[in-house]
Amino acid sequence: MLINISIEDANRILADEHIDINIIEISLLDSLDYVLAEDIKSNINIPPFNRSPLDGYAYRSEDTIYATEDSPITLEVIDVIQAGYVSNKKINNGQAIRIMTGAKIPEGADVVMKYEDTKFTDKEVKIFNYLKPQSNIVKMGEDIKSGDIVLPKGIVIGPAEIGILASLGRSHIKVYDRPKVAILATGDELVDIDEELKEGKIRNSNSYTIAAQVKRWGGEPVLLGICKDNIEETTRVLKSSLKWADVIITTGGASVGDADIIKEAFQETGGKILFWKVKMKPGTPIVVAKYENKFLFGLSGNPAAAYITFEQFVRPTILRLRGKTKYNLMEVDSLLENNSNKISSQNRYIRAFTYKKDGKYYTKLPNKHSSGVLSSLSEKNSLFFVASGMGPYKKGDKIKVQLINYLEVGE
Ligand SMILES: Nc1nc2c(c(=O)[nH]1)N[C@H]1C(S)=C(S)[C@@H](COP(=O)(O)OP(=O)(O)OC[C@H]3O[C@@H](n4cnc5c(N)ncnc54)[C@H](O)[C@@H]3O)O[C@H]1N2
Ligand code: MOO
Ligand SMILES: [Mg+2]
């Protein structure tokens, strides 16, 4: 078992683990934010015909070569085409058809002039200037050509992709499924949110924080409730969850206390421990195991430690399980707003609020930092990483922060 490893090694070990991704078929609108699991090829041209981009008149360009402001050319109007309809008339010399935006260009016409630049009656239209052939004609296949791979496998489905799929007539598509994530709180001291608080007890907040983080990154959280610090009971719950969950996250019992049994429980399930303890604060005692193709994350019981180690180590795994290939958090250069007097003896992620003003990012640190304090994580959107031995920092120092809610956008 690897113990007390660096943050980089922990990330590398996790990234090297093989990921089995499930593919499901899903209805179009439900596919928002899923990753596409098939190449989408078009079997039609879009638009499927040459069409008018304007409300105006379609005619033959050659008829109007000599049209000028002072000496307009008059054409006979032989039909009207609304969008969605076609004309069975062919335009000959000296003729025009009144046409609406989106309608199919009639046979014989090679140009469209908008209403505003003409003078017209029901029977005639006057053209005052010459337009080259093909002016104001949207070509068949301008948007999508038949045979094109319009959406490649691996892209994230957003509103535009949903529209493209709709235009291709796809009501169902193949996507990578969302991982099912079982969440278990462990600790004799825990009661659930609707239970009375007796002496020595605290409420289980971790399960809810973690479930919200899982949801935010697109996993499907399933709360397993609370387990006592008992290895048999914990192992039993883990084993039954391993039958259906892709990921199990526990909180508590990860350290060296008498009742800290998570590492042993992971082993009892038959899982292989990938590592235990990472050189960082908060969250040092994280334990990660693999059982077949499933991941088990044993996070510290301390609420801020669980929150931060989730973002560093669990989030990338959830995103990979959803078929995403980009999963690093966005990092920005920022200016520190307050002094941070501590010299860090260990690598440390400090919770922070980062905002933009006049084109620059600024970062404010809260007063409370302890790994047992959850309240000061409220409205924090970033983490200031301080490597071991670094600091103190003062107001105005240039720092780098991770934005917790945004993924890095790369090529
Ligand atoms: N002798 C040592 N003691 C500790 C060490 C160490 O290296 N040597 N490491 C400390 C560090 S760092 C951390 S972090 C914690 C990790 O603790 P555990 O993962 O074993 O978690 P617990 O002991 O079960 O609980 C810690 C703390 O968190 C509270 N807690 C637990 N579950 C929840 C929950 N679901 N919701 C809210 N709060 C929860 C629990 O009551 C404790 O206060 O160990 C240090 N000790
Ligand atoms: O690593 Mo622990 O999470 O700081 O208290
Ligand atoms: Mg403990």
From TrEMBL:
<keyword id="KW-0501">Molybdenum cofactor biosynthesis</keyword>
<dbReference type="Pfam" id="PF03454">
    <property type="entry name" value="MoeA_C"/>
</dbReference>
<dbReference type="InterPro" id="IPR038987">
    <property type="entry name" value="MoeA-like"/>
</dbReference>
<dbReference type="InterPro" id="IPR005110">
    <property type="entry name" value="MoeA_linker/N"/>
</dbReference>
<dbReference type="Pfam" id="PF00994">
    <property type="entry name" value="MoCF_biosynth"/>
</dbReference>
<comment type="function">
    <text>Catalyzes the insertion of molybdate into adenylated molybdopterin with the concomitant release of AMP.</text>
</comment>
<comment type="similarity">
    <text>Belongs to the MoeA family.</text>
</comment>
<comment type="pathway">
    <text>Cofactor biosynthesis; molybdopterin biosynthesis.</text>
</comment>
<feature type="domain" description="MoaB/Mog">
    <location>
        <begin position="182"/>
        <end position="320"/>
    </location>
</feature>
<protein>
    <recommendedName>
        <fullName>Molybdopterin molybdenumtransferase</fullName>
        <ecNumber>2.10.1.1</ecNumber>
    </recommendedName>
</protein>
<keyword id="KW-0460">Magnesium</keyword>
<dbReference type="InterPro" id="IPR005111">
    <property type="entry name" value="MoeA_C_domain_IV"/>
</dbReference>
<keyword id="KW-0479">Metal-binding</keyword>
<dbReference type="Pfam" id="PF03453">
    <property type="entry name" value="MoeA_N"/>
</dbReference>
<dbReference type="InterPro" id="IPR001453">
    <property type="entry name" value="MoaB/Mog_dom"/>
</dbReference>
<keyword id="KW-0500">Molybdenum</keyword>
<keyword id="KW-0808">Transferase</keyword>
